[in-house]
Amino acid sequence: MANLTPTPKAKTSEAISSAAGPITFRNRTLALFAIPSFAVVLLSNLSRLGGSLIQWFLIGCIAYAVTIAVLLVFRATILPATERAPKPWLTIIAFLVAGSIRGLAVWLVGLNWGIIPESDLLFRVSSGFLLVMGGMSTLAIYEASRIKQDDQLSALNMQRTRLDELRGGIRERIRISQQELLAKVRAILEPIVAQLRSDLQSSDSQSAVNTIQNAVDQLIRPLSREMGSSGSDFEQTVVADARAVSASKLKSTWPKRVQASSMMVPALSVFATLTTAPGPLSLYVASSAFFAFVMVMLLVTITFEFFRAVTTRLWLPVWLALLVALVPALLVPLMCKALLDGLGWITPAASWLQFGLVLSLTVGLSFLMQVVRTQRASHELQLKAVIRDLSLLNSQLRQEVWFNRRRTAAVLHGPVQAALYSSAMRIKPNSTLQPEMVSLIESDIATALAKLDGSNLVEPFQEVLQQIKDVWEGIAEVSIERVSPEVQQVLDTNPTAASCALEIIREAVSNAIKHGDASRIHIAVEQSSSAFIDVKVSNDGRALVAGSPKGYGSEILDEVALAWSINYGANRVVLTALVAIQK
Amino acid sequence: MIDRHVVVVEDESRLRDLIAKSLEAAGFTVSTAANAADAKRACAAVDPDAVVVDIELGSGPNGFDFADALSRTSPDIGIVFLTNLPDARWAGRETKSLPNNIAYLRKSQLVDANDLVEALEAVLHESILPEQRHDLDGNRPLAKLSRKQISVLQQLALGYSNAQIAEKRGTTIRAVEGIVSRIFQALGIDVQAEGNARVEAAGRYLQASGKAISED
Q: CB distance A225–B202 less than 8 Å?
């Protein structure tokens, strides 16, 4: 059942804080309360007290209107529906006041119409309170669960959109941006070369030297503006646009199968019993009401818990799970009536029908709540997966931006600057310029410019690893674990990841020797996932002082690694970094 | 003249050849290397009197790594850094962490090859002049900024917001705002003027570093 999502267990503390929170007083919850409010009035009274359906419907309207009016007064004064902390005691007071006034109103109207006896007052007032508390609390718990699910879905939507966008557009934008950057650099260099040619032809060596010295500034300034103004801004714009377009892409779907036992919440059924049973029991078996109530409570608890226990291994389609969950709600009233009748406490069947209906409604609502919780759990899992992918892609993008800049920089400030500087050094000793010098310098610059087309500037991975080892030979013994052919293949086809891994290794080795006085360093490059390669650099040097400020090394690690950590073991310091692989 | 051996470490072949020729013309025996590992081998082979080393040497160990390794095994070899970087802070190093007996020349300031020869002579005779330490020149780009400010400026040039910089540095946004404000002040950037002060600051950084960001 690996593809099935378990339903999280309902927590009592979470339920209490939902019932006592602002959600209880929101319009939607108040509107939903109409269902139990009308159901109880219509089903419990007609058969017992007579009167017409219209009369009881009108009493139901009055009961609902009075309850809502009182709750609205509380909402407008001390229990706002806006964001606030749960207030359990004040909420209970609100239920008590609303329920009591509701009961009083029902009793007064019913008495006036001659369909409710005078002796019903206490029953009406107490059951009104219990109904409002039970109904409103249950609905608030359900609503809280639904709202959390909506939030979760919205978060998942947003992250998925971001992920899709990162997978597609942004990488392409970076590539295009890089091409545009290179085109601009080329456009900047061309007039410099033309000026240089003109200077050389006029045999003005000092002017030529000045042109060359100015070239770097003229080349770098526009480039720096380009780099300073791009980057994160355009990423944000693209993501925001994509988010707006596909905001409604993801919809909540019902789970295919659910664990039958998880869809039952016995506590809610017990709560429903607690709020509906005392009234009728006190009416019909007044002298033994307490014992009868204890019997009913025990029977409800045992039956629901028993059904939950025996259905633990059942993963059923939603509709079938609902039927299974309703079985104890239908069985309990029959069992209660049989038990009480057996004990000589005769109660009318209509009351148990009403009780069965209340239990069924509660079971249905709990079931819905658990479906929503299952959906939420499923979305949470999806969200985690999306966020994991997102962080991987973010890392890849950071690498790509870093690598592109480094590559452009390597060309601009390597071959191009070298050509310019060496030209200046060639010209300087000559007071007059020789014609052949013109073509020589032009050739140098043209060759350097050709490299802007993106020649492969990445040195072979193993060669650079060997360079790192050789440089520190005699100072520290650097050993390199054999890189497997599979990892080598990944590195060969992924120059960005290879370059990032080398930067991490170079920095780690250099820091271990410089700051930790390491004498033995071991480098290992492995692949534990198809998404990233693992770089591990361990050494026998000193541990760095905890809390030391973040330095260049950690900044570079933040930039190019998906995640990294330093662990201090027995005489070993181990840097572990994950480098994302471009797909 | 006593034969003196110099190893030139420069990854750009044109410049490397030109420097080598200039030094040979000045009477030095020259070996060349394109990266730090080759330079280490060359030093082991010829036991030079001095090295002329670029800081940026491609994907592998950089010039500072090489100089660190060299000064541990052969502390008597003179070192002349010949680089695009205004000073060591641009590669994440403190200037004071560099060995004392070094010359530091910026490529953009070095048009006459004689300046390099003079710097080499100075390190060989341990008589380095202030003008042979471009990294200590008060007029060098962004000389007024501290290493921390340069680090923040680098992140600003990368396009990070103050909040992102704060997260990366493990500090508060307010602290970063203070640093950025002091950077603008030190660079004389008018935050009220037309244009984006952050872009202007990023431009100054890249212009001064003579290289793109995130490169060591």
A: yes
| Residue B97 Cα distances to A13, A178, B151, angstroms | 59, 36, 17
Q: List CB contacts (< 8 A) between A470 and chain B.
A: 37, 40-41
Eight-class DSSP state of B138: T
Taking Cα atoms as reference points, which of B38, B102, B34, B109 lies closest to residue B68? B102
- Tell me the HSE value of A351 on the side-chain side, using a 13 A CA sphere: 19
Residue A473: which residues within 8 A CB-CB, separation 6 or more? B40
B207·A220 Cβ contact <8 A? yes
Summarised one tens digit per residue, pLDDT across range B31-49 is 999 999 999 999 999 999 9
pLDDT, residue A453, reads 56
Residues A330, A269 contacting (CB under 8 angstroms): no
**Distance from C-alpha of A385 to C-alpha of A393, rounded to nearest angstrom:** 12
Whole-number Å distance between alpha carbons of A370 and A262: 7
Structure tokens given for A46: 């007609």
| Domain locations along chain A | 459-583
Name the DSSP class of A582.
Answer: P
- Nearest residue, CB atoms, A213 vs list B68, B108, B170: B108
Q: A390-415: per-residue pLDDT in tens?
A: 777 666 666 666 666 666 655 565 66
Cα nearest neighbour of A419 on chain B: B14
CATH code of the domain occupying A459-583: 3.30.565.10
Listed in sequence order, the residues at least 6 apart from A430 whose beta carbon sits closer than 8 Å to its beta carbon are A205, A437
Amino acid type, A271: F
ipTM of the complex, rounded to two decimals:
0.72
Q: Which of B18, B157, B210 sits opposite A425 (nearest CB)?
A: B18
Are A228 and B91 an interchain contact pair (Cβ–Cβ within 8 Å)?
A: no
Choose the closest CB to A470 out of B40, B84, B216: B40
Please state the separation of Cα B120 from the chain's center in Å: 17
Residues of B in contact with A418 (CB under 8 A): 10, 12, 14-15
Question: For residue A153, is pLDDT > 80?
Answer: no
A225·B111 Cβ contact <8 A? no
Pick the residue from chain B with its C-alpha nearest to A466. Answer: B37
